[in-house]
């Protein structure tokens, strides 16, 4: 049985991962689980999956959980506890922590784990070159969970990179693809969170609405597969049947297709290099009426333009992009700003930044903190 630790087990990816594990009790065993603060869901997961180690990043909530779990379970708290769990070797560690909080646990995991299933984009955006260098030094294998990156990974397999011509990164277009930009200012939070294809966490759903999620995936593709930005094209594909495509120099194009359910790429990441029989309904080709592809509207969705700018510039500008986006999205979710203000926050902070071309980890953390502070100032100016 493959021992698995899930960091971020109470989030959307974490819960779906446990749903997959539940269907294959003879294949997988849960070793460790972690949450930021959701001890209600974590308590339920502990009762169902019997992990040996659990972590609650919120130390106050960790103390509350301690009174209600079996004392045979090792309970760790705080950031130190999360990093400690990241460093306990298992067959597969699933990195399902969202946002920049995944950076230090990911770095620790790369130092220890043989294989990491990565569902976090932000750490690669912030520190892609440093993470890739550490992967090269340790030999840790990183496999993607995101549906688009999983599609690219499956299409590329171990093929000679010199035969690759283009990667087509697909996007559904999000919940606002048919809404006029002039209406963005008054669009409701509920409308933005109503994604037409995927059931995801709130932050990633807002990123999908601004197309920033696809911008973050641009970095993910660059660093996971070692390709230049010039070889990555983004396509709007509203049907969300093709999860990404790879074109080779002979004109052949390989695509990965499936229904829109994150449990499919998660299952392959868990079972790799094997494939296990699926438990979901298969794709019904007879019901597919159209496969549509459009260019993204960069005027309507400027966040994607900012991502391209940051990817081309490199250095610490991607750190600023990510940090300012985190604050802007958080502010929108708290109804402090309207939807159309999200790109304005990001653009203003990016313009204020003096790029550091070859940052150290210390530089990255300092710039991250600076950008979050500046973004808060910009948000306050809107109120």
Task: Describe the largest sheet.
Answer: 7 strands, parallel
Separate helix tally = 15
Overall 3D form? globular
- Biggest sheet: strands side by side, in what order? 4-3-2-1-5-6-7
What is the averaged pLDDT score? 95
Helix content: 40-55%
Order of helices and strands: EHEHEHEHEHEHEHEHHHEEEHHHHH
- What structural category do the secondary elements indicate? alpha/beta
How many distinct beta strands? Answer: 11
Radius of gyration: 20 Å
Alpha-carbon distance between the termini?
54 Å
Low-pLDDT windows of residues = none
Q: Give the percentage of residues in beta strands.
A: 15-25%
Keyword list:
383 residues, 11 strands, 15 helices, Rna Polymerase Sigma Factor, Chain: A, 7-stranded parallel sheet, alpha/beta, single chain, 4-stranded mixed sheet, Rossmann fold
Summary of the model, kept short:
The chain has 383 residues and is an alpha/beta fold. It contains 15 helices and 11 strands. Helix 9 packs across helix 13 (317-333).
Describe the protein's topology.
Elements: E1 2-7, H1 12-23, E2 28-35, H2 39-49, E3 53-56, H3 59-66, E4 74-77, H4 78-86, E5 92-95, H5 103-112, E6 115-118, H6 122-138, E7 141-144, H7 147-156, E8 164-171, H8 189-192, H9 202-210, H10 212-225, E9 232-236, E10 242-248, E11 253-257, H11 263-271, H12 302-313, H13 317-333, H14 341-352, H15 361-382
Parallel strand pairs: 1-2, 1-5, 2-3, 3-4, 5-6, 6-7, 8-9
Antiparallel strand pairs: 8-10, 10-11
Helix pairs in contact: 1-11, 4-5, 5-6, 6-10, 6-13, 7-10, 9-13, 10-12, 13-14, 13-15, 14-15
């Amino acid at each position: 049985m493959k021992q698995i630790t899930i960091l971020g087990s109470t989030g959307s990816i974490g819960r779906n991962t446990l749903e997959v594990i539940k269907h294959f009790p003879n294949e997988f065993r849960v070793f460790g689980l972690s949450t930021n603060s959701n001890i209600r869901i974590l308590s339920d997961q502990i009762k169902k999956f019997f992990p040996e180690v659990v972590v609650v990043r919120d130390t106050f909530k960790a103390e509350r959980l301690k009174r209600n779990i079996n004392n045979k379970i090792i309970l760790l708290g705080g950031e130190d506890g999360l990093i400690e769990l990241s460093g306990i070797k298992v067959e597969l560690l699933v990195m399902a922590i969202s946002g920049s909080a995944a950076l230090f646990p990911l770095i620790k995991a790369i130092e220890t784990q043989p294989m990491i299933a990565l569902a976090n984009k932000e750490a690669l955006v912030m520190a892609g070159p440093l993470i890739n260098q550490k992967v090269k030094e340790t030999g840790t294998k990183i496999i993607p969970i995101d549906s688009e990156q999983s599609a690219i990974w499956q299409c590329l397999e171990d093929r000679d990179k010199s035969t690759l011509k283009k990667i087509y990164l697909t996007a559904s277009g999000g919940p606002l693809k048919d809404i006029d930009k002039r209406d963005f200012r008054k669009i409701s939070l509920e409308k933005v969170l109503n994604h037409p294809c995927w059931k995801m966490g709130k932050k990633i759903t807002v990123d999908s609405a601004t197309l920033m999620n696809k911008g973050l995936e641009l970095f993910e593709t660059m660093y996971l597969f070692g390709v230049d930005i010039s070889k990555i094209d983004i396509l709007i594909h509203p049907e969300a049947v093709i999860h990404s495509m790879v074109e080779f120099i002979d004109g052949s194009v390989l695509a990965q297709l499936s229904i829109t359910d994150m449990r499919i790429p998660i299952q392959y990441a868990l079972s790799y290099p094997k494939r296990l029989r699926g438990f979901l309904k298969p794709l019904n080709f007879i019901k597919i009426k159209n496969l549509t592809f459009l260019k993204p509207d960069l005027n309507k969705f400027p966040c994607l333009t900012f991502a391209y700018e940051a990817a081309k510039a490199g250095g610490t500008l991607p750190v600023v992009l990510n940090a300012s986006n985190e604050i802007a999205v958080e502010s929108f979710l708290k109804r402090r700003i309207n939807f159309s203000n999200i790109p304005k926050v990001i653009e203003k902070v990016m313009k204020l930044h003096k790029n550091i071309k070859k940052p150290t980890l210390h530089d990255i953390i300092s710039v991250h903190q600076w950008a979050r502070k500046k973004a808060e100032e910009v948000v306050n100016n809107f109120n």
